[in-house]
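Retro notes
What went well: the complex prediction finally ran end to end.
Inputs used:
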Amino acid sequence: MAALAFPRHIHTAPKPSFFNNKPKTKLRTRISVQSSLTPPQLGFSDPFVLELAEALEDSLPSPSSSKLSPLEKIRDVSSETLLSTPWPSRKDEPFRFTDTSFIKNSKICPVSRPPPQSLEAPLASPEDTQLLHLAIVDGHIVDSSSNMSGLPDGVYVGSLSNATSESLVKRVGEFVCGFDWGDLFWSINGVGAPDLAVVYVPAGCRVENAVHLRYYSVEASDVGSNKLPVSNPRVFVVVEKGGEVDIVEEFMGGDPNRCYWANPVLEVVVGEGGKVRHSYVQNQSPCAAHIKWTSVRQDAESSYQLVEVSSGGKLSRHNLHVQQLGPDTVTELSTLHLAFNEQTQDLHSRLVLDYPRGSSRQLHKCIVANSQGQAVFDGNVKVNRYAQQTDAGQLTRSLLLEPRATVNVKPNLQIIADDVKCSHGAAISDLEESQLFYFQARGIDLKTARKALVFSFGAEVVSQLPDASVQKKVENQIRELLDPQ
Amino acid sequence: MASAPSLSTAQPPTAVSLRNRCTLPPLPSHRIRPSSSSSSLSSRLPTLRSVPIVSRCAVRAALSTVDRSATPVESGDKKLLLEVKDLTAVVAETGQEILKSVNLAIYEGEVHAVMGKNGSGKSTFAKVLVGHPDYEVTGGSMMYRGENLLDMEPEERSLAGLFMSFQSPVEIPGVSNADFLNMAYNARRRKLNQPELSPIEFWAYVYPKLDLLNMKADFLNRNVNEGFSGGERKRNEILQLAVLGAELSILDEIDSGLDVDALRDVAKAVNGFLTPKNSVLMITHYLRLLEFIEPSYIHVMENGKIVKTGDISIAKTLEKEGFKAISEM
Ligand SMILES: Nc1ncnc2c1ncn2[C@@H]1O[C@H](COP(=O)(O)OP(=O)(O)O)[C@@H](O)[C@H]1O
Ligand SMILES: [Mg+2]
């Protein structure tokens, strides 16, 4: 086991000044690229957090059995850490560019009543309900709205509390508290999660059809009411040795005037040689707060692929942590963030490599098309001492389409091993004038040309969504953003 | 070796709304003078016309004697398509003057060739005609069918029948050739008040055009010019011409980088468009294209000016003695 030593030699890029080597262009768009290290957080009790923790605990029924279930274990550990974690401020490096005061200044009320078991509103289109899907409403698993027919033997998708297999519950219990990189929001989820959904794939089993996780926030307040119902969906995915599964997470907003805060956590453990393809589509209401955690642990020779498209929410943040548990892993992260409204889209990703011959590819793209819109990217790839012959690539490209549209990107590779192949790049631009002209020269007007180019910028990520129907849906969402009715 | 990360690839941002595309002020009308007043070329042109050497068009002799300056738009039953007078243009960013008074007139059904050394301004001339934002017109006029091109956006020029094949067309990653062509073709149909074609209908329309250029169908699925070889790019430009059609095709070095077979395909396609109404302005550095597409006139460009206009015999001199000999003739 490689020691997770704190890096002594950190190769980070020098802090460049504002780029303005193109004198013609007035720098109306705010950009900063910087690389600095996160200072360790000091622990103290924050009265605001304390109050929130109490409200969350009160919203849940007290534990029924004396035996500690995995969910109760999560709650115990989380309340401990929560009490020593203050609400983040802009002074904390991980939140330097992400203002969470919108949440803090709202009247946060944990969703308490479980959703009705039969949801009247059609949650998905009819052809969608044919798919293998689990409906997660305000953090609760709603069986009647789910369809889990035709799963292979030994595969389980559903609430852990309904799982009949003792060994499965035990197995999940072994993993649940094995992640200690979380932040306040991770802990809030741990304290407030009413249920634990589990996707379990036994050894050597290949799940043919993608498992769709459909998240809804039913409890919401009206815009302007200052009330913010919070829900904490939590899902655990265990793929045993040689198992394979596709997970599609979809967060849907519905009515654009609904205010709520979704604070979901997804944990994934991929066993030796296992394969997980993960699609994540975030299309929350433009008034919503959406803070998501994805924690992935990858054993030897496993592969994890993420394709994310996030466009919704007033404040949306994805904390992504991928940790290597053995050598020869493959990790591919492709993410697209769209800020077409007055909103913040944030990706904080960390990939920790401790074993030899890992390969990782990260592509992050964002489009900010609103002068009040902001994209934040902090992408850390850590190639530790024993991670020799690692092949790590990281690329981020941002498109700023309005004056004062903002992007804060902080790509950083920290390399301690000395026999590695690493590359990275960051580019921030407007649409290419020569490309726009090419359209015009063929009779296509500028507006149409711009739309086509913006769409194609995102297509690099969207086209990687493995599920054709999901891809189509996302394409239509983006078309709607480009062409609001 | 551990490579230290660097942010050197980061590029400066450009704010869209700051861009000021194609808003050239209309030129004062007193600039537009009868062509005979300024350059030796334009005064020589009518004379040239009366001595048609390449008689692709039997009627040429009849029209050539008409005094052009008296009837600038009509010339017998031949219409004046493009008339460029004393055109000057600079690089927009630096103000460097590239075109230093260009004069040229093209009538319906004519094939013109512009030749000249590298860097003489041929591509700039072509790009200025279609409204490239890199350049700013500082003087002179460009009239197309009696309309001032400077008053038209690049897409309007295209819809009006002007087509330029780029010497180095750009790659457009993420946009398929089929989608691009379909979009461009539908823009044309909209302009003509015709219903747009769905992707499937368009496929049926475009498919036979591929054959014409000996192109495989998978060409349409590839992204516009992305990873295309030099020859593929040229074929693709001509495919666009075949799909969209044009009254005046400006072909910028359509021959460079092509092997003989490819050149034959391209030339065959171009010759296929030539009708008594359609005209071609081809820019070339080499003589071999002229064996495939016969020009009525050859212009020699040097340092931003057309210094000589003549018939195919100019090409012969060029072949023997190079551009220097021509400009000194
Ligand atoms: N966008 C531009 N920026 C700076 N210089 C340019 C630009 N376009 C053309 N030029 C310069 O103008 C001259 C003519 O170029 P070009 O029109 O491409 O010539 P040709 O096509 O005859 O080879 C060259 O010296 C070239 O460097
Ligand atoms: Mg050229």
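What we learned: Confidence is low (pLDDT under 50) at residues 1-41 of chain A.
What to try next: split runs per interface for comparison.
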